[in-house]
């Protein structure tokens, strides 16, 4: 009898532990985030850098299509190509020479524009060190359950990215900003993408946990442009972002494509430069991280087998609503109704 009792208890112990192992494995391979944010930055101005604005607006369009709302996107454009006097089609920005898709659209919300796009403002957005008067639309209101996509495009070199042809941000400054974000619990996981010359040099100094980085070119390589348009005299996009967006067009909110698929979007045969990525700081296997963990929005659904009486919930809501219409008058200690 004692032997049977022992085996019964032992089997119960094993089943309980197997459930815990499955739960822990599920937590390890899933993101665990509850909200998504995107910081999209074009650091270049002047007409000949049209493609950098188109790059950023194309990524902006993709993340909005996949569910990230404008309230969770910080869009920084150093120049307004749509209203440039050289633009033969005012109020438009195109990413393909067939001129079918206007990525500027009629619902673009630019949070930082023109000379507001500076190294200081960018770092303040990341670290949350903004003046109290800064509106919510210009803030990155993330927390330790936020997955953040940060996309940068512009002109750069070995260890730096230029802002407006007047200042630079170094890879050390960027790495320290991400560390501040981690220490202040401003992200759960962070995906960094940069399309610039010698882009891989910008993630060499990163040291913060749960961070993954992609770049359009290796150290010593140029990141090349794509889609030349003779009518306006400039290239419309950069090669890496062009193929990145081509890949994202096939992604939908329920897609199972993962980060390893993203690493292959622009092989050297198409990019000419050699794209790079860094995953050693990322705690999960990149193959278990879905594209929508960063480019989409969280839509978690909890399934319950319980029977819920909606009638009681509606009655409770009605009572709360009626009570909210009344307040106690501190002067006469009588109930008063708003609006009467």
Structure, described:
This is GPI-anchor transamidase. Keywords: GPI-anchor biosynthesis, Signal. Belongs to the peptidase C13 family. The protein is of the alpha/beta class. The chain has 9 helices and 14 strands. 30% of the residues lie in helices and 19% in strands. The strands form 4 sheets. Strands 3-2-1-4-8-9-12 form a 7-stranded mixed sheet. Strand 10 and strand 11 form a beta hairpin.
In short:
This is GPI-anchor transamidase. The protein has 340 residues and is an alpha/beta fold.
Labels describing this entry:
3-stranded antiparallel sheet, disordered C terminus, 30% helix, 9 helices
Q: What is the strand arrangement across the widest sheet?
A: 3-2-1-4-8-9-12
Shape: globular
In CATH, what is the class? Answer: Alpha Beta
Mean pLDDT: 86
Number of strands: 14
**Domain unit count:** 1
**What is the subunit arrangement here?**
single chain
Total count of helical runs of at least 4 residues: 9
Write the layout of secondary structure elements.
Blueprint: H1 2-29, E1 35-42, H2 50-65, E2 73-77, E3 112-113, H3 119-127, E4 146-153, E5 156-157, E6 160-163, E7 167-170, H4 171-183, E8 189-195, E9 211-215, E10 225-229, E11 234-238, H5 239-248, H6 259-262, H7 268-271, E12 276-278, H8 292-295, H9 310-324, E13 326-328, E14 335-337
Parallel strand pairs: 1-2, 1-4, 2-3, 4-8, 8-9
Antiparallel strand pairs: 5-6, 6-7, 9-12, 10-11, 13-14
Helix pairs in contact: 2-5
Keywords: GPI-anchor biosynthesis, Signal
Active site: 155, 197 (nucleophile)
Pfam families: Peptidase_C13
């Amino acid at each position: 009898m004692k032997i049977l009792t022992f085996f019964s208890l032992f089997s119960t112990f094993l089943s309980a532990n197997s459930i815990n192992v499955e739960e822990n494995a599920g937590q390890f391979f899933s993101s665990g985030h509850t909200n998504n944010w995107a910081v999209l930055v074009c650091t270049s101005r002047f007409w000949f850098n049209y493609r950098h604005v188109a790059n950023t607006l194309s990524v902006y369009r993709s993340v909005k299509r996949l569910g990230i709302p404008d309230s969770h996107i910080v869009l920084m454009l150093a120049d307004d190509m749509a209203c440039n006097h050289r633009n033969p089609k005012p109020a438009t920005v195109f990413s393909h020479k067939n001129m079918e898709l206007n990525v500027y659209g009629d619902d673009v919300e630019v949070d930082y524009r023109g000379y507001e796009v500076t190294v200081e403002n960018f770092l303040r957005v990341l670290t949350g060190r903004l003046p109290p008067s800064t509106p919510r639309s210009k803030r990155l209101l993330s927390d330790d359950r936020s997955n953040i996509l940060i996309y940068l495009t512009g002109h750069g070199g070995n260890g730096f990215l230029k802002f407006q042809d007047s200042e630079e941000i170094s890879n050390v400054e960027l790495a320290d900003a991400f560390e501040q974000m981690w220490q202040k619990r401003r992200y759960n996981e962070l995906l960094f993408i940069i399309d610039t010359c010698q882009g891989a040099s910008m993630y060499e100094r990163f040291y913060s946990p749960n961070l993954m980085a992609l770049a359009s070119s290796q150290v010593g390589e140029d990141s090349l442009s794509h889609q030349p348009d003779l009518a306006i005299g400039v290239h419309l996009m950069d090669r890496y972002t062009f193929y990145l967006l081509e890949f994202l067009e096939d992604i939908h909110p329920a897609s199972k494509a993962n980060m390893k698929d993203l690493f292959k979007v622009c092989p050297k045969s198409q990019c000419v430069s050699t794209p790079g990525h860094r995953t050693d700081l990322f705690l999960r296997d990149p193959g278990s991280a879905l594209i929508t963990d960063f480019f989409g929005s969280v839509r978690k659904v909890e399934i319950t087998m319980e029977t819920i009486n909606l009638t009681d919930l509606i009655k409770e809501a009605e009572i709360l609503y009626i009570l909210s219409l009344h307040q106690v008058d501190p002067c006469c200690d009588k109930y008063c109704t708003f609006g009467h």
